[in-house]
């Protein structure tokens, strides 16, 4: 499938490469490496994103500049490469722009349920990350075009989308690619890991400390909850973004089946639900209060207040657990 | 070097295999796999450790029973294999026993400064883990003897000794071995990672919460410290073992060069020092108060009290930082 993508891309002079909105390590890593690949093949590339690049990923923009899409630059593109999103709407303003001025669009992604709206779709749900797929773009064409910067960019996406190579999406092949990236890029994993993970503000750790003190177990220790309130953010001088990844802590409790992080930050309570049991489907769970997502990770909103929200949401999970016990 | 070890081991009928005191994932993983290797080669093996196996590693003892050394079983051994420790004293009562009744001893380890006292020493400081070395034992002899249980045991040690494959000790070769272990063992990384990392007691998270609230920055935000006291352990009903891995949190602060976890648990203050800068050598640092270890990870002890200890130890680091600035 990459053979076709390579030959299609080579038909163009200027390609706009998009990463998805609210960008993460995988889409940014893939975008930076893909742009460098295009340039090495004599194709001009623009890297677009509507949103800010998270602080811990900004070093990647030294490897390729990522800019807000503007009429003037968009017009210069004669095709678009859309990375790490399963629908045109995942790329923000791109969706609208494309309706007005359609141009060939190529999508590379590993999320489930790819939507229509692209001229070519490379959707590999089994891939650990979109960066793993972009490695194949290099492999297909000329692996010598993979330099140290592109290798580090691709490594970043594999690392961040697999929880440091720990998820069940990591195959022996993923590990081999990681090995190749270290070898070709001539770096050690800590170089990337420290930039991406060891880049916390002291305040964020103090917020995590406060949040972690709220972890409680419910329903015979099957459900773990944790919460963050606006007061905690105020007292530690942090923001909603600083809660990124917190849900992993209640989820790390031995023996539990699901964990929920509640964020009571004004305008109701947002929550992240995670399952670590094949039996518990947090997508179903979240849908009962108008949210949704995947079986193992979903999100929802509740008008509050916090205490009632926790009670109600734990109650929904408890019903699901009771049904499992019956079956 | 493994060729010689293989032929030496095959001269014996019964080998006692030791992991180091206060065992961790690397020594236990190496021990379990080495015992299985010996048995597959018709050599009887006893796995010995003076201490308790940590809760999150006990599943590995289903792959090979680890027992306290007793006169009766020790006598049956006609040689010893010592894993993941650089000196006979790292193996607790073994050191004494060997003085009374010396038998051939083979050591495999990756810590610096290997000490005398072994008949054969395989010390590879560059190896990510002793488990990476034991993989070569299988490779040297007959890789088909590596089954799923041994693969998971070796993977555990590589995972735990490299902070989830993130340290600078991880080479392309380490990643290839990880890949081979996944392929041969037919498992995905989450199977091991969840057992080792997502297996926390609620109390341990509450202790972490308390410890994290003590994180402070020193010397122009170059050194981060964290501490744990006996009161914290009492109040959260936890033990020293529950502090495993805590030092990663101060180390994750952006921009710092080194982090120290102080444990004030009676009988002075124990500490773990970590560096994330090539310039800061925490082995040197620890040696100034009689401790030691690696350049990036070391340990030491100070008579206390806590506040003075922190002041003195940060002071030593500050001198090292000043010397770097001068050079």
TrEMBL record, chains A, B:
Stretch forming the signal peptide: none
InterPro entries according to UniProt: DDH_dom (IPR001667), DHH_sf (IPR038763), DHHA1_dom (IPR003156), Oligoribo/pAp-PDE_c-di-AMP_PDE (IPR051319)
Organism of this sequence: Halalkalibaculum roseum
Record Pfam families: DHH (PF01368), DHHA1 (PF02272)
PANTHER family: BIFUNCTIONAL OLIGORIBONUCLEASE AND PAP PHOSPHATASE NRNA
Domain DHHA1 residue range list: 227-304
Protein name, per record: Bifunctional oligoribonuclease/PAP phosphatase NrnA
Molecular-function GO terms, alphabetical: nucleic acid binding
Location of the DDH domain: 15-158
């Amino acid at each position: 499938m990459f053979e076709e993508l390579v030959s299609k891309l080579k038909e163009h002079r200027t390609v706009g490469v998009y990463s998805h909105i609210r960008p993460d390590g995988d889409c940014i890593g893939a975008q930076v490496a893909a742009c460098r690949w295009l340039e090495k093949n004599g194709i001009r590339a623009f890297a677009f994103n509507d949103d800010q690049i998270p602080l811990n990923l900004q070093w990647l923009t030294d490897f390729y500049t990522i800019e807000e899409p503007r009429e003037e630059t968009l017009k210069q593109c004669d095709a678009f490469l859309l990375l790490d999103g399963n629908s045109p709407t995942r790329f923000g303003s791109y969706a609208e722009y494309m309706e007005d001025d359609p141009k060939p669009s190529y999508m590379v992604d590993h999320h489930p349920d790819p939507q229509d709206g692209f001229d070519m779709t490379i959707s590999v749900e089994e891939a650990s990350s979109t960066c793993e797929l972009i490695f194949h773009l290099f492999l297909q064409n000329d692996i010598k075009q993979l330099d140290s910067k592109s290798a580090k960019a691709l490594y970043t996406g594999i690392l961040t989308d697999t929880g440091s190579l720990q998820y069940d999406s990591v195959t022996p092949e993923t590990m081999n690619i990681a090995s190749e990236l270290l070898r070709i890029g001539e770096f050690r994993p800590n170089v990337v890991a420290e930039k991406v993970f060891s880049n916390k503000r002291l305040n964020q750790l103090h917020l995590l400390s406060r949040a972690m003190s709220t972890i409680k177990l419910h329903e015979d220790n099957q459900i773990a909850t944790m919460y963050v309130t606006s007061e905690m953010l105020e007292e530690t001088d942090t923001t909603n973004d600083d809660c990124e990844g917190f849900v992993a802590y209640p989820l790390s409790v031995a023996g539990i089946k699901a964990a929920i992080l509640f964020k009571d930050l004004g305008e109701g309570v947002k929550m992240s639900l995670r399952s670590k049991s094949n039996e518990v489907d947090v997508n179903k769970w979240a849908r009962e209060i108008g949210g949704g997502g995947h079986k193992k990770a979903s999100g929802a909103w509740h008008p509050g207040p916090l205490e009632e929200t926790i009670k109600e949401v734990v109650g929904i999970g408890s019903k699901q657990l009771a049904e499992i016990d019956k079956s």
